[in-house]
Amino acid sequence: MFRSIDVDNSGTLTMEELKAGLTKQGSELAESEVLQLMEAAEVDGSGTIDYMEFLTELCI
Q: From which residue to which does any coiled coil extend (predicted)?
């Protein structure tokens, strides 16, 4: 799932990639809810979600 959302193959997810990826997966979350997910998962201060953050925060 991470790879399908990471459209630029950078190894990290931006807010835009996360929102588009969740929509592509059938999610109907509001932008504010996607922002909350982003803030919860992005723990290292980089402004993006890396694979380990994705696994730790979004897949559990």
A: none
Tell me how many degrees the CA angle 33-31-41 measures, rounded to the nearest 5: 50
Nearest-angstrom CA–CA distance, 11 and 48: 10
Question: In the chain, how long is the greatest CA-to-CA distance?
Answer: 28
What is the pLDDT, as a whole number, of residue 60? 56
Enter the pTM of the model: 0.84
**Checking phi first, is residue 48 left (phi over 0); if not, alpha (psi -120 to 50) or beta?**
beta
Single-letter amino acid, residue 53: E
Question: Would you state the structure tokens that stand for residue 16, as one six-digit string?
Answer: 């835009």
Beta partners for residue 24, in sequence order: none
